[in-house]
Amino acid sequence: MNALQVIGVHGIKQGSSATTAGLSSKWQKTLDAAVAASKHAEQVGPVELTVPSYQGAFPKTATRFIRLGPDEADDAPVDEEEEAFILEALASYAPSALAEEDDSPLAGHTLGVVGRLTPRILRRAHAVDQVAGRGVTGRLLWVVREAHGYLRHEETAAAVRAEIRAALTATGARVVIAHSLGSVVFYDMLSRGEVPTGHDGGPGVTTFITCGSPLSWLCVREGVHTPGAPLSVPAGVEWTNLHSPNDVVNKGAGLSHLAVGVTDVVAYNGGVAKAHDVHRYLAQDAVLERIAKARAS
């Protein structure tokens, strides 16, 4: 039995040293272990998972300082446009936090990133923590910064999509598993018609699995689809969305209330600290079921 080709689209917090070979190996080991322990092993069969790294496409700006460390980032401050994006993202995540926002000079300084973020961001982040739970904004800011880098910088976004398209073309994969920001990237590719077509002229990718997706955030959706319209994928693409109740990135909920043609599946990944972990999502039975179905089709 030939190996079924699968493309993984990674999310944030990879670091500049995360290579395609390294990411692919880590995802492959998790998936192989899940298959071996699953009742679906025979139906899934051998799988070859490729995770193209797009970290090199992101500029080394101040938004990467918190994620990669001072040796990996330039000293450029957060500009007004990025500040506005971050403030909007945090407000949309926890609207009630706006009433709790503290205007005092020291508000938010306990986040430990003074000098890299503006006072307005620190105040709002502190307010969101008060409403959503301590430490939530520390996780959210990882996503928000790289989402901004993708959604508001077309040259960066085009380079990211080019990496994914090259991997799809090279492997002929019909299955895509996209985690976190990766779900935004691949949804954007589907919307733009940038996914290679199949040999029959139909969609080259027929199975789209999203895990821990931030597409429920308005500021993210506005960047990749028509405002006011529901999220959707092209005909012939089966979309399954896994979400964990404790995952702060997907806000503990699915996408079916915002999208047509999506099947939401709850993934019980544990507490907040691990709920967004890609390997916990990859090990879910629903992922294996979708892969087995793709092989049979």
Report on the structure:
There is one protein chain. The protein is an alpha/beta fold and 297 residues long. It folds into two domains: 7-58 and 154-296, Alpha/Beta hydrolase fold, catalytic domain (Rossmann fold), CATH 3.40.50; 62-151, no CATH class. The chain has twelve helices and six strands. The protein has helices at 20-36, 41-44, 65-68, 80-93, 119-132, 136-151, 154-171, 181-192, 218-224, 272-275, 278-282, 285-296, and strands at 4-9, 47-50, 175-179, 207-211, 238-243, 262-266. It has a six-stranded parallel β-sheet with strand order 2-1-3-4-5-6, with helices on both faces. It is globular and about 65 Å long. Mean pLDDT is 85; it is low at 61-75 and 108-115. It comes from Streptomyces venetus. This is Serine peptidase.
Which helices and strands appear, and what pairs or packs with what?
Elements: E1 4-9, H1 20-36, H2 41-44, E2 47-50, H3 65-68, H4 80-93, H5 119-132, H6 136-151, H7 154-171, E3 175-179, H8 181-192, E4 207-211, H9 218-224, E5 238-243, E6 262-266, H10 272-275, H11 278-282, H12 285-296
Parallel strand pairs: 1-2, 1-3, 3-4, 4-5, 5-6
What's this model, at a glance?
This protein is α/β, with parallel strands linked by helices.
Total of domains: 2
Number of helices: 12
Query: Going by CATH, what is the homologous superfamily of the largest domain?
Result: Alpha/Beta hydrolase fold, catalytic domain
CATH architecture of the largest domain: 3-Layer(aba) Sandwich
Largest sheet: 6 strands, parallel
CATH topological fold name of the largest domain: Rossmann fold
